[in-house]
């Protein structure tokens, strides 16, 4: 698919400097640009590459002024990075702009669906499912009984949505994600054998939630596991039963959150973080990668370590930890000299 510089400028509300009819069909890094590709310049440290790049079109800030001759056509915008992101989003929309029902698929007679949907081959749509307008369900996806999926949501190949799950508008569920599997609930009997506790709740995803590939979100024992509006989940995250994650919180890969923990709004949680169950984490909290959270966390805290401590304290402690062999040797020398 090819676009001219003028067409791209129209999408981005930018101004063309150079040949408005030059065509591009691929994207590239500015230092690896080639003829027929589109790139961008946002970070000043890459400015020298704009004079050598072979990219046909480069998106730049309006403040950019060329100090040497350039051969790439420029599209000047207010914010080059934001504009390039917008273009990527537009490209994805065009690429995934599928409609229609492929064959074979299974659609229950009791299921209802809206306009301009896409159902890929071998998708399964269970009893009493409700699917909104412009929803895309890619091949081999499973949608269980009584699931609701609202407008403009995409469920990619191989995702599994268990029964009773409610998914809002403009959500993205990536391949291999499993939403609504049983929470980890077992109770020991008198003989030391663990008996399963039925998990009869559900999962609710509000609008604009992204769920990464192979991420799992367990249904509640009772009530709901809730992922609030605008939450972004990376790949391979485990969210246990009855967890609640507040609006616009982002969580990186391989984080595990145990049952009934409540996480506030606008939090940033790094990769491989472990969070125990039945605690509350406040709003605007930042947790560094590989931290272990075993206590309640107040608003605006920044934590690192396992068990986690305030970020500044962790860095100060780590300086001493790196020097621990020297410190121990000095103490031993002092003790030795004391008795000589």
Automatic annotation (TrEMBL):
Residue span, UDP-3-O-[3-hydroxymyristoyl] glucosamine N-acyltransferase non-repeat region domain: 21-89
Keywords assigned: Acyltransferase, Lipid A biosynthesis, Lipid biosynthesis, Lipid metabolism, Repeat, Transferase
Family, as annotated: Belongs to the transferase hexapeptide repeat family. LpxD subfamily.
Name by which UniProt lists this protein: UDP-3-O-acylglucosamine N-acyltransferase
InterPro entries reported in the protein's UniProt record: Hexapep (IPR001451), LpxD (IPR007691), Trimer_LpxA-like_sf (IPR011004), UDP_GlcNAc_AcTrfase_non-rep (IPR020573)
Xref: NCBIfam families: lipid_A_lpxD, PRK00892.1
GO cellular component terms attached to this protein's record: membrane
Biological processes, Gene Ontology terms: lipid A biosynthetic process
Entry's EC annotation: 2.3.1.191
Cited Pfam families: Hexapep, LpxD
Record keyword Transferase present: yes
Species of provenance: Algibacter luteus
Gene Ontology terms for molecular function: N-acyltransferase activity; UDP-3-O-[(3R)-3-hydroxyacyl]-glucosamine N-acyltransferase activity
Binding partners and assembly: Homotrimer.
Catalytic activity: a UDP-3-O-[(3R)-3-hydroxyacyl]-alpha-D-glucosamine + a (3R)-hydroxyacyl-[ACP] = a UDP-2-N,3-O-bis[(3R)-3-hydroxyacyl]-alpha-D-glucosamine + holo-[ACP] + H(+)
Function: Catalyzes the N-acylation of UDP-3-O-acylglucosamine using 3-hydroxyacyl-ACP as the acyl donor. Is involved in the biosynthesis of lipid A, a phosphorylated glycolipid that anchors the lipopolysaccharide to the outer membrane of the cell.
Residues forming the catalytic site: 241 (proton acceptor)
Pathway stated in the Swiss-Prot or TrEMBL entry: Bacterial outer membrane biogenesis; LPS lipid A biosynthesis
PANTHER family according to UniProt: UDP-3-O-ACYLGLUCOSAMINE N-ACYLTRANSFERASE, UDP-3-O-ACYLGLUCOSAMINE N-ACYLTRANSFERASE 1, MITOCHONDRIAL-RELATED
